[in-house]
């Protein structure tokens, strides 16, 4: 199996993101607004790997979007720390790929100084081997596009990864490669995922969004399941 090693990312400050009294509401068509969450405060520290959990529709993706500065909070503040370089992955990331480029050209574009061998190696780590690197983006499946986006994300000198369902379209082998890469990643990770194996193997803190509030759990995913009494429903 191809193993992917990250280039050491530039070191960020110890406080990666501080957020205070954070709230987000979406406008409704008929006027007024729907509050997603409110009064959320916390601190994300360097090298933490945090899962954001909650029922569907709880606002997990919206919270990640606010952290990634993809949408403005309705209230409160988000402060990104010193020397923090954000890489953000969502299901919409696939829409920004240039359909006319090949896999190789897409990855090479984010690491222009790298040798052909290094670019090929990164492509291979995400299961594009041999002639696969010459496939055009518009000929790829959803899972293949997902792998290209993740490869381009990991090729950049980012030290804070915000990942919204990164394993959704991935097969088991790709998931294991991504998991291995994230386990050795020297930066900070915040992710939403329904993949319990992924969460068990990776995270050391959990933020639960529930009824518009957020509760931090100062332990890994097993600790969170135990504390909330969910371990029996979490086979």
Describe the overall structure.
The chain has 235 residues and is of the alpha/beta class. The protein has a domain at 13-85 and 160-166 and 188-235: Rossmann fold (3-Layer(aba) Sandwich). 29% of the residues lie in helices and 26% in strands. It is built from seven helices and nine strands; from the N terminus they run βββαββαααβαβαββα. The chain has helices spanning 60-67, 103-110, 116-125, 142-155, 172-184, 196-202, 221-227; strands at residues 15-27, 33-45, 49-53, 75-80, 86-89, 160-164, 188-192, 205-210, 213-217. The strands form two sheets. The protein has a six-stranded mixed β-sheet with strand order 5-6-7-3-8-9, with helices on both faces. It has a three-stranded antiparallel β-sheet with strand order 2-1-4, with helices on one face. The two termini are 28 Å apart.
Describe the secondary structure blueprint for this structure.
Blueprint (H helix, E strand, L loop, with lengths): L14 E13 L5 E13 L3 E5 L6 H8 L7 E6 L5 E4 L13 H8 L5 H10 L16 H14 L4 E5 L7 H13 L3 E5 L3 H7 L2 E6 L2 E5 L3 H7 L8
Parallel strand pairs: 3-7, 3-8, 5-6, 6-7
Antiparallel strand pairs: 1-2, 1-4, 8-9
Helix pairs in contact: 2-3, 2-4
Q: Which fold name fills CATH's third level, the topology of the domain at 13-85 and 160-166 and 188-235? A: Rossmann fold
| Structure classification | alpha/beta
Task: Report the mean per-residue pLDDT as an integer.
Answer: 91
Annotated CATH homologous superfamily of the domain at 13-85 and 160-166 and 188-235: P-loop containing nucleotide triphosphate hydrolases
CATH class of the domain at 13-85 and 160-166 and 188-235: Alpha Beta
In total, how many beta strands?
9
State which percent range the strand residues make up: 25-35%
**What's the SSE pattern?**
EEEHEEHHHEHEHEEH
Share of helical residues: 25-40%
CATH architecture of the domain at 13-85 and 160-166 and 188-235: 3-Layer(aba) Sandwich
Described by strand count, sense and barrel closure, the largest sheet is: 6 strands, mixed
Strand order in the largest sheet: 5-6-7-3-8-9
Shape, per Cα inertia axes = globular
């Amino acid at each position: 199996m191809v193993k992917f090693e990250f280039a050491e990312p530039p070191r960020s400050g110890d406080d990666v993101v501080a957020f205070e009294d954070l709230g987000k509401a979406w406008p409704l068509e008929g006027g007024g607004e729907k509050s997603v969450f409110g009064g959320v405060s916390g601190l994300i520290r360097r090298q933490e790997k945090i899962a954001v959990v909650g029922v569907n529709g709880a606002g997990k993706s919206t919270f990640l979007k606010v952290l990634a500065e993809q949408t403005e909070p309705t209230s409160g503040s988000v402060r990104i720390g010193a020397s923090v370089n954000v890489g953000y992955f969502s299901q919409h990331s696939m829409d920004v790929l240039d359909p006319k480029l090949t896999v190789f050209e897409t990855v090479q574009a984010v690491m222009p100084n790298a040798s052909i061998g290094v670019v090929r190696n990164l492509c291979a780590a995400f299961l594009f081997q041999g002639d696969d690197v010459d496939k055009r983006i518009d000929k790829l499946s959803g899972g293949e596009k997902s792998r290209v986006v993740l490869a381009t994300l990991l090729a950049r000198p980012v030290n804070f990864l915000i990942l919204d369902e990164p394993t959704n379209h991935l097969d088991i082998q790709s998931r294991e490669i991504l998991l291995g890469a994230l386990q050795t990643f020297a930066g900070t990770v915040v992710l939403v995922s329904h993949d319990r194996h992924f969460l068990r193997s990776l995270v050391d803190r959990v933020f639960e969004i529930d009824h518009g509030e957020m509760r931090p759990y100062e332990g890994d995913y097993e600790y969170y399941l135990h504390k909330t009494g969910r371990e029996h429903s979490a086979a």
